[in-house]
Amino acid sequence: MLSKRIIACLDVRDGTVVKGVNFEGLRDAGDPAALARRYNAEGIDEIVILDVTATVEARQARAHTIAAVAREIFLPLAVGGGIRSEADAAAAIEAGADKVSLNTAALADPDLITSLARRYGSQAVIVAIDAKRQDDRFAVYGRSGMAETARDAVEWAREATSRGAGEILLTSIDRDGTKAGFDCELTAAVSDAVNIPVIASGGAGSFEHFAEVFTTGHADAALAASIFHFNEKSVSELKRFLNDAGVPVRM
Amino acid sequence: MIALVDYGAGNLTSVRKALAALGAGVWTPTVPGELARAHGIIVPGVGHFDTTRGLTGDWRSAIAATIADGTPLLGICVGLQWLFEGSVEAPGVAGLGVFAGVCQRVGGDDTLKVPHVGWNSLTMPRPSKLMAGVADGTQVYFTHSYAAPVVDDTVAVCDYGAPFSAAVERDRVSAVQFHPEKSGPAGLHILGNWLRDVV
């Protein structure tokens, strides 16, 4: 049976892992390679490096950070933040990434999804969607949550899928860093609308939150950062909890 | 030395890194003639079956010749699919045909998400060199939309909507649909099994 994946996210700025609340107020969480080593030992299924300020400061994800993390793990590694062109994606993949995650660039130029899927295969292309509740819909934001777009999260997920995306990384801006739980309503709406895996992100605060997003949220994978970074919870404890709760995970 | 065949199908960094961690020497041949001096050959692959067009002509005949000579070969992901007769993903592109059958889309009846991404468990229908010491239920990392049928040479089966070949082995030709270089300790163990057969 296909397991539900637990993914650790390393939000990197200037070579250091940082974490904020609602995309703001970043605090230092340590060295990316050291964190990757710890998560690997604890049984993490996958690691995502997001260069959180790359788009805003208009620079590429730093290849040496990717390479340093890739040296520590024999697991899937995705990289996002500042992937604006095929050349940026190629640089990240060359440095050791298996997948790239597109956000702002895909919004500005949806054809980039298709051209990367043609070159590397859909399995290498994640489209990241940052969504915020707005009345009865979920609005899509670009530029690290700073720029509202006219797009609806469910519609954009459908379009990204038809353009060749292999996975959707769905972040609730409202829940990001709050530890109030994943937005299961948002996750289920997107997951039910597309036939590719959806990674839920934003709001993990307890083991129950993960169980919830895999059941009522219909998520295929769940991503978290601060719950793991500050040694609040270990990945192995989380997996034991999920296994006992009947959620299929890799033990 | 292990020849890692680069036919433009993407990232070889992680395969190279995993082999280095196991102490194997690796090089990427630039012309097909170099394959003759390889102790073992790895045909990697990600993405679309169409990329195996890069393995036509001289590369194809050089790889077929080394197989005939008994040089150990390991196909990974699309590299496994290419060892079959072809794939419905790219009907105009012929596989090498070492194994019988055509690769089909995974997921069975359309209710499952495709690509099949993540950790899934293996069952071993019979003992093999490649899967020695790997217990039934061991999970490895998959990311693919097409897969090869279960055949007599299948040595590991995975099920996603329908059973498919997760690993095949005949004499010194082996292949895996999953990514051993991305499958943690289990994946390194399987790569190590293959390397033991490389003199």
Strand and helix layout:
The complex is a heterodimer of chains A (251) and B (199).
Chain A: E1 5-13, E2 16-21, E3 24-30, H1 32-42, E4 46-51, H2 63-72, E5 77-80, H3 86-94, E6 99-102, H4 104-108, H5 111-120, E7 125-134, E8 137-142, E9 147-152, H6 153-162, E10 167-172, H7 184-193, E11 198-201, H8 207-215, E12 221-224, H9 226-229, H10 235-244
Parallel strand pairs in A: 1-4, 1-12, 4-5, 5-6, 6-7, 7-10, 10-11, 11-12
Antiparallel strand pairs in A: 1-2, 2-3, 7-8, 8-9
Helix pairs in contact in A: 1-2
Chain B: E1 2-4, H1 13-21, E2 26-27, E3 40-43, H2 58-68, E4 73-76, H3 78-82, E5 86-87, E6 102-105, E7 116-121, E8 139-144, E9 146-147, E10 154-160, E11 162-170, E12 173-176, H4 184-196
Parallel strand pairs in B: 1-2, 1-3, 3-4, 4-12, 5-6
Antiparallel strand pairs in B: 6-9, 7-8, 10-11, 11-12
3D structure, described in words:
The complex is a heterodimer of chains A (251) and B (199). Chain A has helices spanning 32-42, 63-72, 86-94, 104-108, 111-120, 153-162, 184-193, 207-215, 226-229, 235-244; strands spanning 5-13, 16-21, 24-30, 46-51, 77-80, 99-102, 125-134, 137-142, 147-152, 167-172, 198-201, 221-224. Chain A is of the alpha/beta class. Chain A has an eight-stranded parallel barrel with strand order 1-4-5-6-7-10-11-12, surrounded by six helices. Chain A has a single domain (5-244), classed as TIM Barrel (Alpha-Beta Barrel). Chain A starts with a strand and ends in a 7-residue tail after the last helix. With 199 residues, chain B is α/β, with parallel strands linked by helices. Helices cover 19% and strands 27% of the residues of chain B. Chain B has four helices and twelve strands; from the N terminus they run E-H-E-E-H-E-H-E-E-E-E-E-E-E-E-H. In chain B, helix 2 links the parallel strand 3 (40-43) and strand 4. At the A-B interface, helix 5 of A face helix 1, strand 7, strand 8 and helix 4 of B.
